[in-house]
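Notes, p. 3: input format for complexes.
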Amino acid sequence: MKQLVRMFAVVMIVSLGLMYFISYLNSSAGYSGDNTLTIYNWGDYVDPELLTRFEEETGIKVIYQTFDSNEAMMTKIEQGGTTFDVSIPSEYAISKMKEEDLLIKLDHSKIPNLKNIDPRFMNLSFDPDNAYSIPYFWGTVGIVYNPELVGDLTFASWNELWDQSLRNQILLLDGAREVMGMGLNSLGYSLNDTEEAHLQEAKAKLQLLTPNVKAIVGDEIKLLLANEEAAVGLVWSGDASEIMGENEKLDYVVPEEGSNLWFDNMVIPKTAKNIEGAHQFINFMLDPEVAAQNTEYVGYSSPNQAAMALLPEEISGDERFYPDEELTSRLEVYDNLGKRMLAHYNELFLEFKMHRK
Ligand code: SPD
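Output follows (357 residues plus spermidine):
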């Protein structure tokens, strides 16, 4: 009898261990049940303390995964096999994901904090009525530079990047639209240009930049520039603000030919399992105090006007990151150029990267 009890106990312990192991495997593969929420976000794009606070307030466990480009994020969601409850794509990616039926329509009655968003950031052309996406952060693409290391250059024009004095001094963010856009803008073309001759011209011009390019990098661009490992960087404005917080010598400028105005919005992908929790998370991130804390932490520009009122003037009044109408009128939002043209931009960018090696 004793032996039977012992055997039963062993079987129970092994089964419990197995159940625990399976649930661990599921959660690390992005499983979302009712009590977990899988968030798929850009790297360095949320204050981790806020995730903990969301978990404490709701009892929902957050599983957090990151991506470093819209293209990588879309590929993963398109492929399926993972469960993401909330993601944060940029405008042209949102338009493409809508087209491909990859997003769930939002229930605004579950997002009362939507009233805190500045109307300027609502109803934009990539998502009229914000049926599928809710503003998170926005910004520009420009140049961060160290005035002590670039002589008389002020980067009023993109073309100054090609100056011979900048040999091996430039870091580029690893983004096809951003780098191709910079090449196109430097030639006076739109960053949504689709004319083959213009695209080839931009690629050829980028290749001439090669001697000045030290590296094409991801989030590490911030540390490298702040530590003065390079004099100049092509960056998103929010990264510039973080870099300049670390090294006050540096400055940020958007060249006169124009540049990109971008919007990153929260969405619920089609693969979501915890749709209720996803709405709760979106609403949580729109709370004025939460959004203000997040803005101070990540350094990006907030579309939340109630949060803006809580931020110090040195942040909310900084025109480099909250540009006036004159500068905004020179900026373009990326269009969804369609699957084939987006793939072509990526191809050209890849060829430029290969050319460097
Ligand atoms: N490290 C956070 C990066 C967020 C960048 N989003 C900008 C996308 C512009 N298309």
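Residues 19-31 have pLDDT under 50 and may be disordered.
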